[in-house]
Specification:
It is a multi-pass membrane protein. Keywords: Membrane, Transmembrane, Transmembrane helix. This is Androgen-induced gene 1 protein-like isoform X2. InterPro entries: ADTRP_AIG1. Its main location: membrane. The chain has one domain. The protein is mostly helical. It is globular and about 55 Å long. The two termini are 28 Å apart. It has nine helices and no strands.
């Protein structure tokens, strides 16, 4: 048990260090290019209009909270039950579905026409390893976290409600950027008709729910199926 606990702490520290270093590199070597007039980060909403960046920052905050909880429990000898409970909900209802959407949608569109999602002109600005930290490792890292740490899933209704709410909030944000900024956050949206945009949103919402259920399935494989309150009552 102690070895497993130590493995969790090492995992949290390493992942947080990776995200912190990536953030540092971004601000030090990449941000100046995107601050130039007319660049995507200089427009309305800055970098916060991209789900990739929101997801990346959510990862950073999540794993920093894991390091904090490890410190509270391992060094101070106190319980961090409240923080752990928040981590459980954030991981399963927000981080995992959002990370799956970011990875699948990004690489799916990239495979069809990369100019619609990540133009070749960005290759000399953003190193491939950062691109993979933002769009690839986000899912394996969460799967490792789910394997190393038993995160309790909420009821399916509560979990899906959080995931769907997040999607609606981000859709509203995209529409605000389009209205106020006068441009679409992602170039491929500019070539869509209104009907195609609605279909894309419905499709994304559907796969977001599927990804939530996939996360639940992975958790069941790692730790066994979650017991419903009804089953727990029968056992009692």
């Amino acid at each position: 048990m102690a070895a497993i606990r130590q493995g969790q702490v090492v995992e949290h520290v390493l992942v947080f260090s990776l995200y912190f270093f990536t953030q540092y590199y971004d601000y030090l070597y990449i941000d100046d290019f995107f601050k130039q007039p007319g660049s995507v980060r200089a427009t309305f909403g800055g970098r916060w209009k991209f789900m990739t960046y929101q997801n990346y920052m959510a990862h950073t905050v999540f794993f920093s909270s894991c390091v904090l909880a490890d410190f509270i429990e391992g060094v101070l000898g106190k319980k961090a039950a409240g923080l752990r409970k928040v981590q459980d909900y954030v991981l399963v209802s927000i981080l995992f579905p959002m990370s799956m959407i970011v990875m699948v949608v990004f690489w799916g569109i990239y495979a069809v026409d990369r100019e619609l999602i990540f133009p070749a002109s960005l290759d000399h600005v953003i190193p491939p390893w950062i691109n993979h930290v933002w769009h690839t490792t986000i899912v394996p890292v969460l799967l490792l976290e789910m394997y190393m740490v038993h995160h309790k899933y909420p009821s399916r209704r509560a979990g899906l409600t959080g995931a769907i709410t997040l999607g609606l909030v981000y859709l509203t944000w995209i529409l605000i950027v389009a209205k106020v900024g006068g441009f679409w956050v992602y170039p491929f949206m500019a070539v869509m008709t209104g009907f195609q945009f609605v279909l894309f949103c419905c499709f994304t919402a559907a796969i977001g729910c599927v990804f939530y259920l996939m996360g639940e399935l992975c958790n069941n494989v790692f730790w066994g199926p979650r017991e419903t309150p009804r089953k727990q009552k029968k056992r009692a």
